Amino acid sequence: MGADGDRTRRRIKAATMKHVAEVGYANATMKAIAQEAQLTSAAIYHYFPSKESLVVATLESVLGEVVGRLEEAAEREATLLGRLTAILEEALACVEDYPSVTRFEASISFETNRHPDLSALRSRRREAEEELYSRLISDAVAHGELAPDVDGQSLVDVIVSISSGLTYLSATSVPERHRCAVRAVESILDTGLPVVGK
């Protein structure tokens, strides 16, 4: 399809993410997405035959990029705490690059029961995130950062729960509140909870 076709696809996906984040999947229309992308409806249908196929392609693309960026960020650090902090920083960067991404993903979560393709994508995203954190925990055990008998699955569950909570906060609150929460988690990773007395 060539470079022009790829650029148009990216433009359509960006418009889809923004529009669905604003109005929800059920209220989104191909016509409105076309207007957001400054294209005709016919142009949209040339690339994507239906709203569901367009949203699936958009979700697959953005989740693939985000997970890839988090994995790359983790690889730039050597310690578990360094890697977790790098992931948090990269997650912030992803939200800055794609301000609608968390609201887009949140709006899709309400549709997974009716749309198996969307449900499968969200499941794959969670599995990829869990695999990433499991690998980091295993590496930390291998390097002596964590005890050999550590309950790795419980640690992964805690990390995923924190990540999910931050994602939810990003989708439902103002950017500054999300940023402050990320910084608070980073501070806890670095120095522990600020406990006064005993």
UniProtKB/TrEMBL annotation:
Species this protein is from: Nocardia jinanensis
Domain of life the protein comes from: Bacteria
Protein's recorded name: HTH tetR-type domain-containing protein
DNA-binding region: 29-48
Lineage: Bacteria, Bacillati, Actinomycetota, Actinomycetes, Mycobacteriales
Keyword DNA-binding: yes
Keywords: DNA-binding
Molecular-function GO term, any one: transcription cis-regulatory region binding
Domain HTH tetR-type: start-end pairs: 6-66
